[in-house]
Amino acid sequence: MFFGFITGYLLGSIPFAWIAVWLFKRIDMRNYGSRTVSATMVGVLISKPIAAIIGCLDILKGLIPVYFGKTFFESSGLSSSFFAYAAGIGALLGHNWPIWLRFQGGRGVSVVLSVLTVLFPFGAIYLLVMLGLGKLFRAGAIMVIIALSTMPVLSVLLHKPLPDIIFLLLVFLICLIKRIEANRESLPDVNKRAVILRRIFWDRDVRDYHHWLHRQL
After folding, report:
1. Rounded to the nearest 5 degrees, what angle is found at the Cα of 127, between the Cα atoms of 160 and 105?
2. Helical H runs in the chain?
3. What whole-number distance in Å separates Cα of residue 202 and Cα of residue 195?
4. Both ends of the chain: CA-CA distance in Å?
């Protein structure tokens, strides 16, 4: 279980987005836009095609350790569940708080999607549907947090085992904490409560999404 967590964390910590921006622009992407090490900011700072490639690489960071753990341990006749759970949590924590970038990373949506694809396909489909609705109504951030917060409830209604429910609850809490923490960006002196709520529901500190993505610190 510990090995699965460490493997997942180290793979999740690979900052593909940061590396791409540094190679193309020679800048630290954590000083721009949302400050997240994410494919979204790669699209803003470089191009959409490069962002798509980075998004795929981020998905693999979660997919590889979880899939390997699940299939290898099953074929060995050993219990694969806890190794896969640990690898998934590790990959998510690594992506959100990578050791190589002073624990300043992304928000984890791509990694969550890849982990769910292996462990909870119904959850991956649910998240994709919510992402589609978010794109349609220009409310992607709030749809993601709704999906993650309701997934443990859905797993209870679907009579999933308790470890599955706990795992999904941990995934939600990790993503929620990351939004509030926002790579340790300080809260303003005024309207702190409003900013915290915006971080939770809209994943940004200000109302203007365009301004948020194109700001420079």
Report:
1. 105
2. 2-12, 16-25, 39-45, 48-75, 81-96, 109-119, 121-136, 140-157, 162-181, 192-202, 209-214
3. 10
4. 40
**Domain locations in the chain?**
2-214
How many angstroms separate the CA atoms of 127 and 119, rounded?
13
DSSP code, position 101? G
Which residue has 């000083």 as its token pair? 31
Summarize pLDDT for 20-57 with one digit per residue, the tens: 999 999 999 999 999 999 999 999 999 999 999 999 99
Alpha carbon distance 28, 113 (integer Å)? 26
Whether the pTM exceeds 0.85: the reply is: yes
As beta bridge partners, residue 166 has none
Joined tokens for residue 191: 């309207």
Task: Determine the Cα–Cα distance for residues 96 and 176; give it in Å rounded to an integer.
Answer: 11
